[in-house]
Amino acid sequence: MICRKYFSNFLVKQNFPSSKLYLSNLTRNSSMTAKSVELNSFSRRKKSNSDIGWILLVLPISAFGLGTWQVRRKLWKENLIQELKSKTKLPALDFPENEKELTNLEYRRIKVVGEFDHSKELYLGPRSCLTDGGAENTNGLFSGSGSTKSGYYVITPFKLSNRPYSILVNRGWVSMQNKNPASRVSGQVAGEIELEGVVRLTESRPQFVTKNVADSRFWAYRDLEAMSKIVDSEPIMIDAVVECSIPGGPIGGQTNISLRNEHVSYIITWYGLAIATGYMWYAKYSHALRSIIK
């Protein structure tokens, strides 16, 4: 620019005939060049903004997809809970000749005849008392499993009359105050009885649950192998059904079929995120994109 200025002054001083025409063309070309650079820069900026806009559109689309997936998961979980609940209501089967068949009968009722050994009670918990398997509290924003009052499940060895061994029976729930057998003497049934129970298998240690303590009568989760060794029984457990509850004794029917079902909160979260990010994207990029389309 400085060279051009001095060159222009030189032409004027020399009174060249074409100096004015040259200066006019030079000024016009300079102006057009600056405008062209500005337009090209604006065009690149506009293109860059639109590219980023299309990339960011992935956020609301992904959130909407995850919300839809959670809707399907919710339906699947509800169907599974209903299936488990139906299993527990089917007529009771006889105890199988081969006890290994029990691995395919979880959540099915079976009939057993025998006698309790109350001197070897174990306690599983702390647990809340379930009503109808806890399934009625699983469709809200947060899943629940029954009463908020804390207590224990009473696990008692049961000597089978038609087998040379004992199994474990979850007789049901008792409050903290009634954990001691001396506080529920009327519920300590003696002699041979027949009862129905739901087959339960061993479980892995749940997340955030403390480890079981070996040689203890108190257990945090169902480890049938370890529990059976303490009371000298087979690693087989059934949950006594609610009809087998005895006044003064544990409350039966403590088979948990609720499962974890918090998909409603997940659905609200993902769809809410899709709406929020979609609105922000529209407010930011819709005008630029419409101008490009035009």
TrEMBL record:
Which residue windows are transmembrane per the record?
52-71, 264-282
Origin superkingdom: Eukaryota
Q: Which UniProt keywords apply?
A: Membrane, Mitochondrion, Mitochondrion inner membrane, Transmembrane, Transmembrane helix
InterPro entries according to UniProt: Surf1/Shy1, Surf1/Surf4
Localization per Swiss-Prot or TrEMBL: Membrane; Mitochondrion inner membrane
> Which Pfam families does the UniProt record give?
SURF1
- Return the GO cellular component terms, semicolon-separated: mitochondrial inner membrane
Query: Is Membrane among the key words of this record?
Result: yes
Query: Topology with regard to the membrane?
Result: Multi-pass membrane protein
Annotated GO biological processes are: mitochondrial respiratory chain complex IV assembly
Q: What does this protein do?
A: Probably involved in the biogenesis of the COX complex.
Family that this chain belongs to: Belongs to the SURF1 family.
Q: Name the PANTHER family on file.
A: SURFEIT LOCUS PROTEIN (PTHR23427), SURFEIT LOCUS PROTEIN 1 (PTHR23427:SF2)
Q: What is this protein called?
A: SURF1-like protein
Name the source organism: Aphis glycines
